[in-house]
Amino acid sequence: MNDAQLYKLPPGTERLVLDEAFRRQVLTHRVQNLFTSWGYQPVQTPVFDFYDLYAPFLGSSSESVYRLVDREGELLVLRSDITLFLARSMGVVLRQGHEPLRVCYADTILRHQNLEDISANEFYQIGAEFIGSKAPADDLEVLLLLDDILTLLGLGEARIHLGSRALFDQVFGPETPGRQGLLDAVALRRWDEVGPWTALFSYQGDAAGLRRLLQTLPHLTAPVRAELTLLADQAQALEALGLKDRFRVDLSEVGRHDYYTGLVFQVYQPGLGEALATGGRYDKLLARFGLDSPSVGFSLHLGKVEHLVPLDAQAAPSAAKAAPGKTLAERLDNARKLRAEGRNVTL
Amino acid sequence: MSEPLTLVLPKGRLFDQVQEYFGARGLRFDFADRKLTALDETGTLKIILVKNADLPTYVHHGIAGLGVCGDDVVYESGHEFTHLLPFAFGGTKMALAARKDHVRQEAPGHLTIATKFTKFTRDYFHGLGIPVKIIRLDGSVELAPVLGLAPYIVDLVETGSTLQANGLEVLETLKTIGVNLFANTSYFKLRYQEIGRLVDTLRN
Questions:
Q1: Residue A188 is nearest to which of B78, B83, B192, comparing CB atoms?
Q2: What is the model's pTM?
Q3: Are strands A159-164 and A67-69 parallel, antiparallel or unpaired?
């Protein structure tokens, strides 16, 4: 046996044991109960699928996916993005003109990460998607669900930044030279590259501020104004629900995935170097997998915050005490009584 | 008053320039003997000193929220950050250099280059469609052509005096390197108002 292999984990994999694994189970269970109470049905996507189906959507992440060849020589990809795998699954299962469908998942993804990024904890995602949903009202449902999850996890300081990919697409049409570079420049706030549009895309604040900004930028085209008004309306609706602290308008949020078409958002949590959750509207994605149905959804890296959520240590199986009693029958009897009281007991 | 913003600065030549620039704008700080952290006099910034090449790692992982260093270091790290402010000081050039008497002997379209900046060099020449063989060195890169390790080097050049002293010359400037203030994106998003005020202070 090779000792070096024994102690090393291949990059892009994760091992959870004992208390850590228990913690994940408990949190997943809590979130799944919440999904159920919101009417979201579970979906499990396959671990691998045909690479060619996903290749057009992978962009720069194509470098980090794991590919393999199956026994018939087909090129496969391991599940690297649940949104894509889900779109493909639902595209096959649903028929055109279906009723709106709310689905949720809790699954692992597999992709290569650089050794030093191993702490990024991006291997376990929970998420929800509202398929056949319409903007803007249904966007709000998904945002409110996300807010509820953050509250459930006790993440009161997490902030959800709202932006619009549609806004970017209206300003920089498909023919714009260097469009991908501009998308990156806006997202990373490299304003020298964005030029005259800086005043627009650099905006961060609330709904009222966004409306004031609209008035100070008279040269905007009607479609651009429409996108901004839509976003201001959505933000205002959330603020009216008493969620002003949770949500912020941030026009530098433009969605780095090419499949986004409308609202985009990211969740930021103090102490985390990267976004905790990412989501948005993707009205054209399912059409690429055979079902023309608009959707909105998000995925959240639960592994990044598991350690922040308080759990009752006594509730863990590792805290189980031995049942009293001299004989097996006595111990079993006592154990049953104690377990009925909610205690964890070994025989 | 909220917690101070955390800023990592590189040890070495850039540090003095940053200290002077910040001090002139009311953000004075000093490091007690051998200490690697300090607060500025206004309590706005907690400053941490790290090795230049490690700086992006600290910011990427959110250990520190803000950082100041050259484009070259950020590029080599491969990480992405929110861009906040370019500085006028500390600018330099990334250049391709060789011995003054060098005669191009390799087959056309193939360069052997010694450099500390392996990612930049590979990406730059591959972008031009030129295959390169890279030899990674950590310092005194000028020695490589002199001793025959590699005919070419890619390195930062300020005045060119080190090249001159070793009988080398710049063949081509590949990129202008600037020094920037940047932020971990998540950190910026959570504290953008305070960071915005800091940037305004530093801009003037």
A1: B83
A2: 0.93
A3: unpaired
B134 and B183 co-located in one domain: no
Interface size A-B, in CB pairs within 8 Å, comes to 43
Successive 10-residue mean pLDDT values, chain B, 204 residues: 90 93 95 90 95 95 95 95 96 96 74 96 94 94 95 94 94 96 97 96 92
Q: How far is B31 from chain A (nearest CA, A)?
A: 25
- Best mutation target among A60, A122, A183, A190 (most B Cβ atoms within 10 Å) is A190
Cβ of residue B58 closer than 8 Å to a chain A Cβ? no
B69 with B99, same domain: the answer is no
Residue listed under structure tokens 């500025």? B40
Domain of residue B69, residue span:
5-91+178-203
Q: Taking CB atoms and an 8 Å limit, are B186 and A274 in contact across chains?
A: yes
Q: Verify that B171 and B182 share a domain, yes or no.
A: no
- CATH number of the domain enclosing B133: 3.40.190.10
C-alpha torsion angle, residues A200, A269, B183, A265 (rounded to 10): -30
- ipTM reported for the complex surpasses 0.85: yes
Average pLDDT over residues A108-113: 82
Number of domains in chain B: 2
* Distance in Å, alpha carbon of B83 to nearest chain A alpha carbon: 5
Facing B186 at nearest CB: one of A184, A192, A272: A272
Taking the Cβ of residue B190 and every Cβ of chain A, the question of whether any pair is shorter than 8 Å is answered with yes
CATH entry 3.30.930.10 includes domain A10-158+269-311: yes
Indicate whether B76 and B31 sit together in one domain.
Answer: yes
**Residue B73 sits in the same domain as residue B121:** no
Tell me the Cα Rg of chain B. Answer: 19
Domain layout of chain A by residue ranges: 10-158+269-311, 166-256, 321-347
Quote the minimal CA–CA distance from A1 to chain B in Å: 33
Within 8 A of B123 by CB-CB distance, chain A residues are none
pLDDT digits (tens, 9 = 90+) for B106-147: 666 678 999 999 999 999 999 999 999 999 999 999 999 999
Q: Are B182 and B86 members of one domain?
A: yes
Q: How far is B111 from chain A (nearest CA, A)?
A: 25
SS3 call for A285: coil
Strands of the sheet containing A41-42, edge to edge, are: A41-42, A101-108, A124-131, A295-301, A277-281, A263-268, A159-164, A247-250, A204-205
The answer to whether residues B154 and B195 belong to one domain is no
Tell me the residue ranges of DSSP E strands in chain B.
Answer: 5-10, 37-39, 45-50, 66-70, 82-99, 111-115, 132-136, 152-157, 168-183
